[in-house]
Amino acid sequence: MKKTKKLLMLLLALVLVFSLAACGGGTTAPVEEPEESEEPEAEEPEGEEEQEAEEEVRTDLNMVVQAEPVGFNPLKTNDSASSRVNVQMYETLFVRSFDGQSYEPLLAESYTNPDDTTWVIKLKEGITFHDGTPFNAEAVKYSFERIMDPEYGSARASLMATVESVNALSEYEVEIKTKAPDGVMLAKLAHANGAIASPTAEQNQDLMAQPVGTGPYKFVEFESGSHVILEANEDYWNGAPFIKNVRIDIVPEISTAISKLETGESDWFEGITAEHLSRVQNMSGVKLVSELSGRVTYLGVRANSSKTGSTEIPEVREAISYALDKQGFVATQNGLAVPSDSLVGPKVFGYTEDSESYGTGFDMEMAKQIVEENNLSDKPIHILASNSSFYPEIAEWVQASLLEAGFKEVEIEMMEWGAFLSETTQENRMDIFPLGWSNLTGDGSELFYPNWHSDNIGGGNRSYYQNPEFEEYVNASQTTLDMAERLEALDMANKTIVEDNGVYPIMHSNNVYAYAEDLQNVEMDPGGNFYIKLVTRK
User: Fold this and answer.
1) What distance in Å separates the CA atoms of residue 435 and residue 297, rounded to the nearest whole number?
2) Is the distance from CB of 467 to CB of 502 less than 8 angstroms?
C-alpha cells in the first residue's frame, strides 16, 4: 500500500513539473517531495486558534478567607467576614466611591432634600430580587424598619438611630424623615448593613442561612468551617458579571491560606501579615497590593463591667496607655500600617493632625512608676482575642508590654472570630481586647457612635463605655449638616475618649491583598470591600 502511494506521488510530481515548464517559459522551479505520512494533516481553519484561546479564559474565581462569616443577613450582621460575602449578593441605595471622596447612587436613581430633616429618594426601576420579587419603595421601607425595630436585633441599628419614619411615596419613591438634621445619612445609606433584602424572603426564611438580595451573585452553598459558594446572577439589572462561579474557602491558619495562593488553588487572599509579606512578594504570577485604608486597629478596654475589675481602676488604664510602644510594634509590620494616637485615621472624615498628640505616648518608666506607686502589680488582666489575622500577635505584644510594666498576671484567651464577636458583648467577660473597625462609611461619627456610645452597650459598644461629655460631642456631630461644625465635634470626641483612656488606638492599617496576575479590575474600597462583579480575566 505504501509503495502504491509513493508511486502516485512521484507521478503527480512529474505532471506538475511538465505543467510548470509549459506555463513558465522554459524555466522550472525545484519541487520538494512531500514528507511521507500515513495520513496528511488537515489544515486548521483560520481563526480557530484564536477561538480556542478565548474559550480557555476561566470564568471562575477561588478565594481564601481566614474568618468564617457570622451569617448572610446584612440587617443582622456587622463583621467584616460576613460583609466580604454579603456585598456580592446584596446592594445599598448608595455606594462609596473607591477614592472615598463621594457617595454615588446604586439602587437609588437620585435624591432631594426638601428640608434639613427630609430625604426623598427616587429608586431605579425594573430591578428584581433573586427570588423574582420586585425591588421597590416598599422593600426599602421594610428593610429599614427592620433595622429600626429593637426586637429584630439588628447589629447596626445605629444606622437608623436618627430616623423618625420611612414612607413609600410611590412605587419607586421613598421618603426618610429624621429627628434632626443628619449629616451622615448618605454614608449610612451606603453602608453594607443598610442593604435592601427581599421582604418576601425575609418573612419566609432565615436570611442568615438563605440570603436573597438584588446583587450580581446568588447564594448556592455554605458549609461551616469549609467554604461558601456563589453563582452569577445572569439576570442582574446592571449586566451579568464576567465571573460566573465563586468559591470562598475558609482557612483560619494563615500559612495554609497563603500556600493556596502560592500553588494557584486560590486566586485571591486578603489579610497578609508582616510575617508573611516577603513570601507573597516573591511569588511568581501573583500581584501584591498595599494601600492605606480607613481601618483603625485598637485595644479596647472595659472601664466598666470588666472580668477582673482591674481595668475599672483609672490608674491601671493609665499605666496600660504608657506601656504600649505603638511605634515599636508597628515597625514590625513592614510598612503595612502607620502608628497613631488617633482613633480617626487620615482616610476618615473627622481626622485632624492635632489628634496624633492626644494620647499619653509611650513611656515604660512612667508605666512602671504608676504600677509601683499604686500597688497595682497584683491586679490581674485578662486579654480576649480572636485567633485570626494579626490579633494573636497584638495580644502577645500587649501581654509582654504589661508584664514589663510590672503587672504579674496577664492572661490571654483566644477563640475563633464568630465566638469572639459574641463573647465580647457579654458583661464581665474580659478586661482588654484587640479589635479593628473598617469604617465603611468613611465618617468618624459612624466609628464613635456604634462602638462607644452608651446607646449601644451590649451590642457594638463592647467596652461598655459611658462618658456624657464624649456623647455630647458625638451627638453634635450627627445633628448638623455644617461640615465645619461636624469636624470640630468629631475632633473633640476623639480627644475626649483617648485622653480618658477609654480606648487605645494602635494603628491605621493598609488594605493588603494579593491576587493572581491574570485577574483584572481587582480593587478594594477604603472600607475593605472587594467587588467580584468588576473582575475579569485576561
Assistant:
1) 6
2) yes
CA 404, 407, 411, 416 torsion-angle sign: negative
Degrees (nearest 5) of the Cα angle 288, 74, 459?
A: 100
For residues 156 and 147, the answer to whether their CB atoms sit within 8 Å is yes
Per DSSP (E only), the strands in 237-321 are 245-250, 268-270, 286-301
Q: What rounded mean pLDDT belongs to the chain?
A: 90
pLDDT (tens digit per residue) in 198-252: 999 999 999 999 999 999 999 999 999 999 999 999 999 999 999 999 999 999 9
All structural domains of the chain with their residue ranges: 293-511
d(CA 193, CA 176): 17
Contacts of 365 (CB under 8 A, 6+ apart): none
User: Please, which residues have CB within 8 angstroms of residue 357's CB and are 6 or more apart in sequence?
Assistant: 341
Q: In whole angstroms, what is the distance from residue 488 CA to residue 491 CA?
A: 5
Architecture category of domain 293-511 in CATH: Roll (3.10)
DSSP 356: G
* Rounded Cα gap, residues 477 and 471, in angstroms: 10
> What type of residue sits at position 267?
D
